Amino acid sequence: MLNRNVGTGGRAGRPGRRPVGHGFRLPRLHAPRCCEPGFTLLEVLVTILVVSIGLLGLARAQVASLQFNHSAHLRSQATFLMNDILDRMRSNSTAAVGGHYTLALGQAAASPGRDCGNPAQSCSPAEMAAYDRWQWKQDLAGRLPGGDGAVQSMAGAAEPGSFVVTVRWRDDRSKEADAQFEDLSVWTRL
After folding, report:
1. Which pLDDT belongs to residue 41?
2. Which end of the chain has fewer CB atoms surrounding its CB within 10 Å, N or C?
3. For residues 136 and 71, what is the distance between their CA atoms, to the nearest angstrom?
4. Burial letters 26-59, b for 16+ CB under 10 A, else e
């Protein structure tokens, strides 16, 4: 049977029980009200530290991304310039097989006597090769930092008309003293 007088104080219920209704407070399970609102200075400092470390990591990732993007751009330019001299050699294969395109790294190409880039000029294959070498060395120096190139004839090869073309440039992404230059080489047969 259900006792309806439970919790009504000392009137009809059991003596010593607290009333359930008005004036009854539950015990607090958290800190007193004076310390609840807001953040402490220590919490704010820890939050600023964590956010700062995260932002520094993000900035470092962005810088690395820009460096790798620049390095990829330089490699693309080197590939383009390598294909440029190969196309010039293929279009003037007589002079290429004759050794007129041979250049070493660090060797300056002499200024051509004629402007063979002008279609109105009539140039011999040797003059065109001199112009192509000079133009290629100018493009290497202008498009790549520390840009240089070499064309080596593989005269001892079993197949005539074999060449190795090398493009070299300074890659600032490399921080090591020995790895300050990047080389890109290709072997081809005309």
Report:
1. 87
2. N
3. 21
4. eeeeeeeeeeeeeeeeeeeeeeeeeeeeeeeeee
